[in-house]
Amino acid sequence: MTKPIAEHCLRNQQPIAEALSPYLAGGGRWLELGSGTGQHGVYIASRHAGVVWQLSDLEDAQPGLLAWQSEAALDNLPPPRILDVTRDSVPSGDFDGVFSANTVHFVGWPIVRALFDRIAEALRPGGYAALYGPFNREQRFTSEGNAALDEWLRSRDPDSGIKDEADVIECAAERGLRFHDVQDMPANNRLLVLRQCS
């Protein structure tokens, strides 16, 4: 299979990897939820040999993930897992970190809550969760581009759309995930970092 390529991954993989570097410096096991094409995982795993990076996504995404993972042939990038956050469990406390890019705004709140259920399930105490993507602040869009993106998202799925950062933090806190940090990222995105406190 020809490897799928997401152009936005090519644009944002370096700043994401740089922003995550402090959390990856000590090594450990990380789970990526909604890995998409697998480009982020390959990029990060190739730069952090001490981190085992576990790709995961729905069944439809597996051929593309396998194409990237197989070609990379990295010892710290195992074969991807089929994982539907609304249905599948993950090994409890098995991961030092969880990462997900551009997922929260693509789905409705029931799936966001399921996503946080899986994150809380996967993380060891003190582990980190990092979410990349656009977030509203004080219930307002942070750019015209984000407003247009929200309109497009809702046209394809009325339950989806850009979430308010405070609402996402509150949803995470209900599952024992506390706010740790947030960083501005290119193209009006943010990297929201949470920490497992339970």
Helix content: 25-40%
Order of helices and strands: HEHEEHEEHEHHEE
Mass-distribution shape: globular
In total, the number of strands is 8
Helix and strand composition category = alpha/beta
Low-confidence stretches: none
How far apart, in Å, are the first and last alpha carbons?
42 Å
Layout of strands and helices, then pairs:
Blueprint: H1 7-24, E1 28-32, H2 39-47, E2 51-54, E3 56-57, H3 62-72, E4 81-82, E5 95-101, H4 109-122, E6 123-133, H5 144-156, H6 165-173, E7 177-185, E8 189-196
Parallel strand pairs: 1-2, 1-5, 3-4, 5-6
Antiparallel strand pairs: 6-8, 7-8
Helix pairs in contact: 1-2, 2-3
Structure in words:
This protein is of the alpha/beta class and 198 residues long. The chain is built from 6 helices and 8 strands, in the order H-E-H-E-E-H-E-E-H-E-H-H-E-E. A hairpin with a 3-residue loop joins strand 7 (177-185) and strand 8. The relative contact order is 0.15.
Short characterization:
The protein is built from 6 helices and 8 strands. By secondary structure, it is of the alpha/beta class.
Observed structural traits:
198 residues; two-stranded parallel ribbon; 6 helices; globular
